[in-house]
Amino acid sequence: MIVTKSGRRMFPTLQMTVTGLQLHSLYSFIVDLKCVDQKRYRYSFHQSKWIATGPGEPELPSRVFLHPDSPAPGRHWMKGPISFDKIKLTNNQMDTRGHIIVNSMHKYQPQISILKHNSVEKRETFSFPETTFIAVTAYQNHRITSLKIERNPFAKGFREGDVDDEMRGHLNLFKPFFSSISSHFQYS
Amino acid sequence: MIVTKSGRRMFPTLQMTVTGLQLHSLYSFIVDLKCVDQKRYRYSFHQSKWIATGPGEPELPSRVFLHPDSPAPGRHWMKGPISFDKIKLTNNQMDTRGHIIVNSMHKYQPQISILKHNSVEKRETFSFPETTFIAVTAYQNHRITSLKIERNPFAKGFREGDVDDEMRGHLNLFKPFFSSISSHFQYS
DNA sequence: GTGTTGTCACCTAGGTGATAAAAT
DNA sequence: ATTTTATCACCTAGGTGACAACAC
User: Fold this and answer.
1) What is the pLDDT of residues B5-60, one digit of tens each?
2) B149: helix, coil or strand?
3) pTM for the full model?
4) A159 touches strand D (CB under 7 A)
């Protein structure tokens, strides 16, 4: 995942559906990033894979992303997929804009917390392994670059089309969808 | 104010500051448009003014604009000016997008309501005379058109500049501000 | 004649990876 | 040698009034 000083969105977007909430109780949804191991990674071009290369940076002041709809009744959250597309990542430890701070070349696991606003607050935290990533300031793997260019609408300018837009639209019908990672959670 | 089928923002933007709210009580802010008289208007080019010309259209199904921050604690609303820039007006009576429906060539008075979410709900409605307007599908008065072009950033393409942007920036320092109508209310 | 609609060029605002320069 | 930064062209997304065509 690309990380910049001014903050970069995640792509694909973190997204989830949830069932089992109480229709009229208030909930908040919070995302944070857990550094999965205290290791620095480097990409081996020969082996085409990431390799852990020893002790990483110290843990960073942890920031969280509060979903802008929070707090909202269960009814609202269950209307459809909950999208975290406004999350921005930065490697600037002095960031003042509230973005989530990460160390480049480190591996992260997004965590989602559901906060239930009752007389007693209840917090439940969970994560989906399919959403782990390594933060970078420049892509290390050409196939990741291609995937992002193909799937992110904002990178359309880098697509080199032997097919025009209309034809591409038809072709896309046969490709797996990949503009968000959609996970599901059953609240209980 | 221009009105279209698909919905048009208001310009200048409705905006207000409020004091006197309880810091931790929840409030919602609601805007609606009151048809000030059941009259249709036409613009007299000779007299350079609007003239009432008899009975207007029947009252329309009233729609309201709920400020997207609602509900929020008093503390939030008093942090700074509350902007209603997302309001959109339409003349399409079949509108399905939740925009506020108005009749063209009729005069309207925006109303703001503060809803206090307590054990007992309290609603207080008020309006600022400086924000009345007549809805149109095309500008009738050339001086209004000029004002909008001068002040609305999105209309920059229609400014015919004998001065470049940097020079204009300096000149603007001497002009009265007119990109929003900012009113104040003391809650009690 | 009068008012409305759809389309357009021209903007604001901001999200992409490429690239060269800089930092480490 | 490796990683980071700043800038850029090229997009998405959507807000302007002008204007010609249209409806009544």
Assistant:
1) 999 999 999 999 999 999 999 999 999 999 999 899 999 988 999 999 978 777 76
2) helix
3) 0.86
4) no
Nearest residue to D6 (CA, C1')? A5
- How long is the CA B131 to C1' D24 vector, in angstroms? 32
Distance, in Å, from the CA atom of B146 to the CA atom of B162, rounded to the nearest integer, reads 15
C1' (D8) to CA (A155) span, angstroms: 14
Provide block-wise average pLDDT over 10 residues at a time, chain A (188 residues).
98 96 96 94 93 80 91 95 97 96 96 93 94 97 95 94 52 53 80
CA of residue B108 to C1' of nucleotide C9, angstroms: 32
Neighbours of A67 (CB within 10 A): 19
Q: Which residue is nearest to nucleotide D16 (CA to C1')?
A: B155
Q: Is the Cβ–Cβ distance between A3 and A9 less than 8 Å? A: no
Per the CB < 8 A criterion, the answer to whether A1 and A46 are in contact is no
pLDDT tens digit sequence for B86-110? 999 999 999 999 999 999 999 999 9
Enumerate the nucleotides of strand D whose atoms come under 7 Å of any protein CB.
Answer: 2-6, 9-20
C1' of D17 to CA of A153 (Å): 29
Residue A155's nearest CA partner among A167, A164, A147, A163 is A147
Structure token pair of residue B43: 């613009």
